[in-house]
Design a protein that fits this description.
Elements lengths: L1 E5 L17 E2 L2 E2 H10 L7 E4 L6 H5 L6 E4 L6 H14 L7 E4 L9 H11 L6 E6 L4 E4 L6 E5 L5 E10 H8 L10 H6 L6 E4 L10 H16 L8
Parallel strand pairs: 1-4, 1-6, 4-5, 7-11
Antiparallel strand pairs: 2-3, 6-10, 7-10, 8-9
Helix pairs in contact: 3-5
Bound molecules: cytidine-5'-triphosphate (CTP) and magnesium ion.
């Protein structure tokens, strides 16, 4: 069982001077927190971080670890980065039937406990699955491009997808090699496009994706709280 962390994005929506995965949170770059959570799962044989070609920052900020690899084969989209990273895993000896947990570098508050829950729920499943949260808020669809409500949608049966997402390396790579897959924004969509139904495993609100500037403060507060109370947030 392997982990792959796509960290080759540019953080456009956050709008900082550098890619968001390198912004400091609680004294360490965001990527360091995400990598630490996955290295905390002994079930994972290795954790591979995918960065952009020529990006040396991950190597500078991550402490050397026998289970950590950094590969600079990131692509123009998240799916392209994941595809290139999976190919590197196979080149390094992983087998197509092995599981991979793909996790966003930008979900830096994920807990070891949530990752373990995903593994336990999926390791004997035929397809695999993802962490996700049932939608809690009432949903509105805007009318056209106005800021007026056009409709209220039922949240019945709706979930917000999180990561990690856990699938077989070979099946995922096969799906990602189809030309229309490179625009997909998560692994589950790739597996769904192959006619399969991934398992929904309940995640946790802390595991949100740092996307907009306001998310930084919340992530930092959670990381600091966890450091002060190591028993919280599922850390062993
Ligand atoms: N990612 C990647 N390669 C890309 C784009 C994204 O590896 N070409 C990674 C990001 O680094 C991030 C994860 O995929 O860890 C989730 O993507 P997102 O939150 O969209 O990050 P960015 O693409 O960097 O942000 P934005 O969309 O605002 O530009
Ligand atoms: Mg993006």
């Amino acid at each position: 069982m392997y982990a792959l962390i796509p960290a080759a994005g540019s953080g456009t929506r956050l709008g900082a001077a550098e890619p968001k995965q390198y912004l400091p949170l609680a004294g360490e770059p965001m990527l360091v927190h995400s990598v630490r959570a996955l290295l905390g799962c002994a079930e994972l044989r290795s954790v591979t971080v995918v960065v952009r070609p020529g990006d040396t920052r991950a190597g500078q900020c991550l402490r050397a670890d026998a289970r950590l690899r950094i590969v600079d084969c990131g692509g123009a989209t998240r799916a392209a980065s994941v595809r290139a990273g999976l190919q590197r895993l196979l080149d390094a000896g992983a087998r197509p039937r092995d599981w991979v947990l793909v996790h966003d570098a930008a979900r830096c508050c994920v807990s070891v406990g949530a990752v373990r829950r995903l593994i336990e729920a999926c390791e004997h499943d035929a397809v695999g699955g993802l962490l996700a949260l049932p939608v809690a808020d009432t949903l509105k669809r805007q009318r056209g491009d106005s800021r007026r409500v056009g409709a209220t949608l039922s949240r019945e049966g709706l979930w917000q997808a999180q990561t990690p997402q856990m699938f077989r390396i070979g099946l995922l790579l096969e799906g990602l090699q189809r030309s229309d897959a490179l625009a997909l924004t998560d692994e589950s969509s790739v597996i769904e496009s192959q006619g399969l139904q991934p398992l929904l495993v309940e995640g946790e609100p802390d595991n949100f994706k740092v996307t907009l500037p306001g998310d930084l403060r919340l992530a930092e507060a959670l990381l600091l709280r966890r450091r002060a109370q190591p028993g919280r947030g599922g850390k062993p």
